[in-house]
Structures are given as C-alpha cells and as structure tokens.
Amino acid sequence: MCDNPQYQHHLLCPDCDLLVGLPPLIRGQKAMCPRCRHTLLNYWHDPKRSSVGFALSALVMQGLANLFPFVNIEVSNLKRQITLLQIPMLMISNHFSSLATMFLLCVQAIPALCMIIIILLYLNIPFPFRLKTFLAKLLFSLRGWGMAEIFLGGMLVSFIKLMAYAQIRIGNSFIPFCCFCLLQLRALQYIDPRGLWDIIMPCTVQVNQFHPGESGLGQGIRACSCCTLLLPADMNRCPRCRTHEGVRRMHSLQWTLALVLTSFILYIPANLLPIMITDGFSNILNSTIITGIMLLWADGSIPIAIMIFIASIIIPIVKMIALAWLCWKATTRKERKASDSERMHRLYEVVGFIGRWSMIDVFVISALSTLVRMGSLMRIIPGIGVVLFSLVVILTMMAAKTFDPRLLWDKI
C-alpha cells in the first residue's frame, strides 16, 4: 500500500482532471466524479478473489466452448456441424485472412489473454518487475478490444435470419460460450486498477499537498494514465510503471482528426462495395450494407433490419461527426460553462461506448459465410466491403481512445 494515507483518499479524474476526495465506501457502492459523473472507483468485496474466480471460470468455459459443436444446421437434408475453431478456417479458405485474424484476436485471443493476465497479476506470481509492468499495461490496453459478446450477438442475428430457410439447433458449446462472455465481462468489471498496481509495486507518493475540488493542472499535478499515481505536472516519467507522458496526451487532436478523416474516406467504398456475395442455384447476388438491410426489411425481419441500420449506418456516421465536433470544440479559445463541457463529455462517453457495437454487422457476415456452405446449392462469401467496414470501426475506436477528454474542461 501507499506510504501516504492521504493518497488513498484522493483520486484525479482521468476524464476532467478534477482532484476528488474519496468518501468511505461500503460494498456495492461506487465513487463518481462530481463534475463529469465519470466512475472513479467501484468498491467490491475482495476484488482479488472475485476477479481471479471469474477469470478462471471464463477460461474453463472458453475451453469447453472450443471442444464441441457450436451450432447444427440442416438445409434440404444436408446437415452440418460448426465449431468455433472452424469459423476462422473457413474464412481463410474464402481468402479472407484479415477477417479470420480479427475473429481470432477479438473473440478468442484477447479475452483469454486478459483473463490469464488477471490471474497472474492478482496471484502475485514472482515474475520480474518489468514483466509485471508490461502485463499490467497490456491488460489495460486490450480490455476494450475483446468482442466475444458482440460476436455472440452477431450469431444470434444470423440464427434469426436463417430460421426461415434452415433448421438451426444450438450445439453443446453454445451455452459454455455464453457463460464465457458473461464471466469475462465480470472479471474485467471487478478489476481495481489502483489496488492491482499496489500489488505489483507499492507506490511512493511524489505529491504532498492535495486540494480537492480543483483541477490537477491548476495545482501542478497530474495522474499517471496507467497506474493512477499522482505526480508533479513536470514529471514526465512515472516512477512506478515507467510510463512516459505529459499532462495531456501528445498531439491528441491531430491523431483523432487524422483517424476520423481516414475512417470517413474508407466509409464511402465500404457502403458502395458488396459486403456479402450469395451464390445459390447458379445465381450470384452482391449485397451492400443498404441492400442487405432492405432485404431484411422485405423478409419481415424489421427489428433486425432496424438494428443493423443503426449499428452499421447511424452509429459510424454519428461517431465520426461527434469526434470531429469534439476536436473543434476543444480547440476554441474562449471560456465555456461547466454545463457545456458536461454535455460534450456525455457525448464523448456515448461515442466510446457504442462504437464497438458497429462490429456486429461484420460478425453477422462472418457467421453467415460459415453457416451457409451447402455444396453447390448455396454459399455465402464475404465481400471486400466487410473488410473496409471493419477498418472503419477499428479506426473510429482508435480515434475515440486517442482523444483526450480533459481538453474539454481546460477552458472552464
């Protein structure tokens, strides 16, 4: 633990740079920043045991989910069993190694790696300090890129779409995979970044005076974005985790605008080029995002069509416009009211939360291309548009992460 008891009762908000005095918390309570409403700390009973327990259970469920068939499909007396490991192999056979790599990373590797790191760090395995630091940084960098639950949502949409044409039965691994999605989310939810870093290395406080209710920039302190250690503003390297950074993210607005512009350029061909090619009964049908939504609407799957329209059309456009607008507002020199910054910050949080769910359309196409492979009768092949669209989603997620929300509060 820290050698200064005052440090344990103060936290610098990572979103608005307000130094907050933490009140005593009981189990189930959370501390929120009074200015931007960002959740600073969740008080869990024994987070170490809970995180390790959920992580171990998630790994067991993931192992079971990869051993047995995930789904059974029957069309015109043709039966197939699909396992999770077959999905990337079939994508590679269709010459879409990029989608296979994304599936292996976002659905399988990253969630499993995060669970393994949680177990190793919380159990305080005697690794070298540099290795522990690397693992902790890797955990906090990757935990937002796991998309197992989004893939599960894409599979459910695919099942609903195929029920009119085929008999769909869930396999023995479907329930374990659902449990894996829930357990890995709970394991990540129970992580206490400050407590985890205290296990890796007890902190040595570099700041002696705390003035709650004032911004860190105004009193010459900053918080390490990795281990939350409070540091003098002019100290660029954290003495605990060795992270090198300044009081604000370097070139934050430039990187955000560059990524938004690139995603907008890719978004145009992603909507014009086919995302799915249906080859059935000697007829080839190229479907773009819009035509796919129209077909779902015509088939009577109106709720699914609306969901795909929101996830694939509305959310990417709104996200790009919102990020560009936030960058513009952050560059204005005039002072603003706290209520204006609060509204902009709320928009930033919404953008960061909903952006990854645009990937559901990519997983729907991946699932359909895996399920619908009935010899010469019918098959579905991903189109180049799905690769471009996945790049749009990834770039907008990166843009949201490079944007520094503290810039929205500096003019108050």
Q: How many helices does DSSP assign?
A: 14
Q: Sum up the overall morphology in one term.
A: globular
State the share of residues found in helices, binned by percent. Answer: 40-55%
> Secondary-structure element sequence?
HEEEEHEEHHHHEHHEEHEEHHHHEEH
Approximately what portion of the residues adopt beta-strand conformation?
5-15%
User: What kind of sheet is the major sheet?
Assistant: 4 strands, antiparallel
Subunit organisation of the chains: single chain
Main β-sheet, spatial strand arrangement: 11-10-13-12
Q: Could you tell me how far the N terminus lies from the C terminus, measured between alpha carbons in angstroms? A: 34 Å
Low-confidence stretches: none
Q: Quick one: how many beta strands?
A: 13
Radius of gyration: 24 Å
* SSE class: alpha+beta
Whole-number average pLDDT? 84
Write the layout of secondary structure elements.
Layout: H1 5-8, E1 10-12, E2 19-21, E3 30-32, E4 39-42, H2 47-65, E5 71-75, E6 78-82, H3 86-93, H4 97-122, H5 129-142, H6 148-162, E7 167-170, H7 174-189, H8 193-200, E8 221-223, E9 230-232, H9 252-272, E10 276-280, E11 283-287, H10 289-298, H11 302-331, H12 338-354, H13 360-371, E12 373-374, E13 378-382, H14 384-402
Could you walk me through the main structural features you see in this protein, from its secondary elements to its overall organization?
With 412 residues, this protein is α+β, with helices and mostly antiparallel strands. It has a domain at 248-412. Helices cover 53% and strands 12% of the residues. The protein has a four-stranded antiparallel sheet. Strands 6-5-7 form a three-stranded antiparallel sheet, with no helix packed on it. The protein has a two-stranded antiparallel sheet with strand order 1-2. It is globular, with a radius of gyration of 24 Å.
